[in-house]
Amino acid sequence: MADAKLARKAEVLEDTAHKVERGAERIARGTMHMEFSADRRTELAANRTIFAAERTYAAWVRTGLVAMASGVGAKPALSGHLPDWLIVLTGTVLVLFSVFCFLAAVWRQLDPGPPPPKPDAKRMHPAWLIVFNGFLAFAAIASLIGIWFGHPPA
Length: 154
Description:
Helices cover about 85% and strands about 0% of the residues. With about 150 residues, the chain is an all-alpha fold. The protein has one domain.
């Protein structure tokens, strides 16, 4: 009878050991899944950071283009309503602000702060940003020269 009790306890102990082993395997699989899930969430967050930086870049360029257009349009729009020196000053400030926006767009895109985790999304190549915004800054400076030395509207 003692042997039967001992055998029964051994069976229960062996069954418990199998259950513990299966539970440990489930925990290990769940842990791997959580690690993968956390890594993926981190990658997706890095992608969102890239796209937010691109939206910020676009906002700087858009603001610069509007400021440049406003600066160029100030002379014909305000002529006859304000003194010439104030029109030229307004156009100058707006065009210089547009140059600042074009430069700030590249600066913010190239130096976004601390590095995020490796994203899936590819970033725009910095050379394109510099060339494109350099052209816009050059166009703004040309507009400024036109504001300063251009003929008054008829």
